Amino acid sequence: MAAATQAPPAAVAEPAVAPGRGATARTLKAFKASPATYAVLLIVSAVFFVPLILMVSIALASDQTSAQNAFTVIPTEFLWSNFSDVFTATGLPVGRFVLNSVIIATLSAVGQVLSSSLVGYAFARLRAPGKNVMFVVVLATMMIPAQITMIPQFLLFKELGWVNTYLPLIVPSFFSNAFNVFLVRQFVSRIPSEMDEAAQVDGLGYFGIYRRIVLPMMWPILTAIAIFTLTHAWGDFMGPLIYLNSEETMPLALGLQYMTSTSNAMQLPPWNLVMVGSIMLTLPMIVVYYLGQKYLYEMNVSVGSAGVK
Amino acid sequence: MAADLGAVLGAARAQSPRRAGGRRAARLPRPKLSRRGRTEARFFWLFISPWLVGFVGFLLGPMIASVYISLTEWDSFTPPVFVGLDNYVQALTGDPVFWKALWNTFFYAAVSVPLGLAVGLWLANLLNKKVRGRKFFRTMIYLPTLVPLVATAMVFKMVLAPSGPLNDLLGVLGIQGPDWLLDPLWVKPALVVLSAWGAGSATVLLLSAMNGIPREFYEAAEIDGAGPFRQFWSITFPQITPIIFFNLIMGLIGAFQIFSQVYILTQGGPDNASQMVVPLLFDQAFGFYHFGYASAVAWLLFVVIIGFTALAFRTSRRWVFYETEVR
């Protein structure tokens, strides 16, 4: 976390020279920062930062402090051993949780990247009767809230014997999703098509053009899709809650909730270790975001003016 | 899902001029498909087949099934019993918890979305000034949005504890804080506080929109003697209304689907004071195996979301300003 605050991530789009901030130009009134501006920003930043500090502070607290709810926002204890205890002292296979998260998130991302690049390419480049109708259907499907299909999907996967396996969380990714198809389609539409036409003249087939010409140029948007899918699958709670009920298959997001509820009624959950788990859940997202922010920007451009976190 | 719809909104707009201009001067006008055209069409269907199969298998099929299930009483172990519209009638007239959940969801959406936008707008406007350490402040405000919801919920269980940091802070200001998650009156505001922590994503989007406003507007306004407050309402705000609108729609859709926070922090309690529509649906389906009733609730939620989205679009004509309309 310290690294992330030092370096400057965060913005979705940042023009090189922002208006009102030119080196030579006089600062306009509207852009003058008064001491009050700084005071407000400092206070707000501090308030926004408190929960994060608290997460770290509790993660470093002892079992006693944790059990007595005697945390402080600024850490006073530094039990780094909690970071290894979390794997052994909870009676839960936390290492396995992490592995499950990695498997689910990675395979979902692979599935989305493969399928949406293929489908998006077809929508951007190939011509066929009925294509426009199909594209309207793609857009329309984005309006359907997940709750509508949730129950029939569950019954379907139960029928297939997929409950308590990763499959219900991974397999749908290999059939692409409308939003990602749309992103790829927008992105590919912006790539000039001279290259594919030349390749076609040289006798390359449609799959060859996709594989050798377009796919190599798509990687910025595919990286963005991978990050988007990865973060979504990593943090997903409801999906695992519906489909996974054994400790062996549960991802970390669900495992954390499990950790707070399995201890017997007399005993408080081990909040210090739960917070260590929360940090383990959070840190990879910050790293992924930091490494990938320029591709997320790409995604914003591709979508149009609108932004996507 | 929330992101999905928003993107379509943005895209529909971004796309329309291009569509009007004809895309990539079509290679050949085609009265009838040539052999090559037929091959191309075959490849098109082959390439989109993953989506097509997924669409039929995971969306269209389940949607149709959902309509049918909502008209039955079904626990998935015994055969479904067709009951007509009984489930809908039951939700709307016979189940006080449904109305309570719907009201709570309304409340949550109606408070958290405008509040998030107001905070985002306020912070973006501050950050748009010539501030030293701007990136630092922006990072601090954005960082919380990267925290997965489950981790956020875990931390806020601590933040909102009766003797937690939030009440400590209020104590410093001389206010006796409530018991937040344990108090029927304060449990919804507590969830709103949690959502406000994520105001950074709106802030960053609004800030990048503000960056795109031409400086000349402000120069002209300053010569005309407009103060900063007037400049904000007459220049900044109208210029970024499309992004505000986008955030409003996305926020509403997301707020109506709130689930994880409620499930982890309150389980709908105390006394259903924080029960919301999706957690209710989840309990009915996966707790009590009332799949018919839960499906009916899902469709009712869909109607509510569509209704509010349509309402937002209708009012948008009055306050959302698109640059292209002027040119």
Describe the secondary structure blueprint for this structure.
The complex is a heterodimer of chains A (309) and B (327).
Chain A: H1 2-6, H2 35-59, H3 63-67, H4 82-88, H5 94-125, H6 131-141, H7 146-159, H8 167-170, H9 178-190, H10 194-201, H11 206-217, H12 219-235, H13 238-243, H14 252-262, H15 271-303
Helix pairs in contact in A: 2-15, 4-15, 5-9, 5-12, 5-14, 10-11, 12-15, 14-15
Chain B: H1 2-20, H2 35-47, H3 49-70, E1 72-73, E2 81-82, H4 86-94, H5 96-127, H6 134-142, H7 149-159, H8 165-172, H9 187-196, H10 200-211, H11 215-223, H12 228-256, H13 260-265, H14 277-287, H15 291-319, H16 323-326
Antiparallel strand pairs in B: 1-2
Helix pairs in contact in B: 1-12, 3-15, 4-15, 5-9, 5-10, 5-12, 10-12, 12-15, 14-15
In short:
The complex is a heterodimer of chains A (309) and B (327). Chain A is mainly α.
Oligomer: heterodimer
CATH hierarchy class name of chain B: Mainly Alpha
Major beta sheet, strand line-up of chain B: 1-2
Low-confidence runs of at least 5 consecutive residues of chain A: 1-24, 304-309
What fraction of the residues of chain B are assigned to beta strands by DSSP?
A: under 5%
What percentage of amino acids of chain A are in beta strands? under 5%
For the record, what CATH class of the largest domain in chain A applies? Mainly Alpha
What form of chain A results from the Cα inertia axes?
A: globular
How far apart the termini of chain B lie comes to: 33 Å
Measured as a percent range, the helix fraction of chain A is 55-70%
Question: What Rg of chain B, in angstroms, do the CA atoms define?
Answer: 25 Å
Report the strand count of chain A.
0
| SS elements, strand count of chain B | 2
Helicity of chain B, in percent? Answer: over 70%
End-to-end separation of chain A in angstroms reads 19 Å
Give the count of helical stretches of chain A. 15
Q: Biggest chain pair contact, residues each? A: A-B, 122 and 125 residues
Instruction: State the secondary-structure class of chain B.
Output: mainly alpha
Quickly give the CATH architecture of the largest domain in chain A. Orthogonal Bundle
